[in-house]
Write a structure and sequence with these properties.
This protein is mostly helical and about 425 residues long. It contains 22 helices and no strands.
Length: about 425
Amino acid sequence: MTGVILAQIVVVVTLILMIIGKTPMYITAVVGSTIAALLAGIPLYGADPVTIKGLLIGGLNPVLIDMGGILLFIGIMQSTGFLHVIIGDIIKAGNYIGGGPGIITAAAAVAGGIGMMVGFTQAAITGVVAGPAAIKLGVDRNEAAGALQHANILGCGAGFSHPTVVGILAISGIGYGMVNVWGLVVAAAVMSIAWYRMRTHVRKEGFVKKMSAEEIKQLLDKFNKDKKANVSSWIAFTPFIILIVAASSGAPIFIVCFFCALLTSLLARRDLQKSQGEMIEGVRMIAVPSIATIVFLFMSGVIKNTGFVDTIAKFFEPLLAYSPELLMFLISIITGIITQSLAASSAILLPFLSVVLTAGADPMASSVAAIAGANIGQYYLTGGPVSGLNTVIPVVPGSDLVKANLFQRPNYLFGFVVAGCIVAALTFL
């Protein structure tokens, strides 16, 4: 048995261990990849064009710079209380537009928006306010919990910091921008169908009430506590809006985020020395996604250079010839459902993305397919084991995880359809 075949066997075993999740993911990836590389004849270092040292350096992708800038911004937004002003305004708007269902949808959108920046979405942040408020306005407890947790679809699928998304963009080479927009569309579809179903149920039960201004104020006062910012809404929203517009224009993300963070500090009239510390505090959140990105890209590089990608390509050659992008979407859905984790899905998604790109797939369509399928799929069976539905249930009084997940599933199916249409349109139009 040749070294290359042994290397590919080690790759398969490593992927299986990562999918099962019974071993430490990053340790498994690094150890397995290193052993596979050595078996394939790749040296640790030296003058060879491909070395383990070179593959590790390849994991230091420029997208990590963008992630650092985003976390600078979110750090100062949190410390100044601007983020709490935005949360409060969106919950007020949700109540005004749609009563209980509107409050839940708005709260999910805000939590998802925060998750877009930090790479870890926790719907309980806004759910602790929105859940009891929506229930008071007639929303079913389980529907409220299920709809709140849809924040994760937005945070992971349209965000800037999730390690698997960072790895996908690094491999496809497309960077941030439209891929985030398509992720936003998919998340909006899931949230919209949840809102529609909640509203239908509420109206059927005869609830049409909205919270009074005083009731909303009491809720937000309890939520804000020491994070209250004495600024108007337009001031709090200004840096965030500038960030979104500038980033969408193609400007360097790090520079945009840095100056938006500086603008936030100036608008809050903060001491710049203190603001610098708060910005750096935000960057500390980069530790896990940056290490994960380096590990995943190192593993991806090893997989490419052991011939494993070519082996997979031959196996799926008939489907690859028809539409590698749609095949990527199908594999992504299955992987997400099985692993129940977008992070764990990287073990399959990253090498398979290399396969479809080698087969001539469109980078944008393939990236959307890789992200959307696993992002939705990870929550389908149970609501997700990590930062999933189980973290929302405690802040929505009386809700049940199984029943809340049953409410979610039709919403996820609708999300699959919308995502599939986007992938197909990007592929064939």
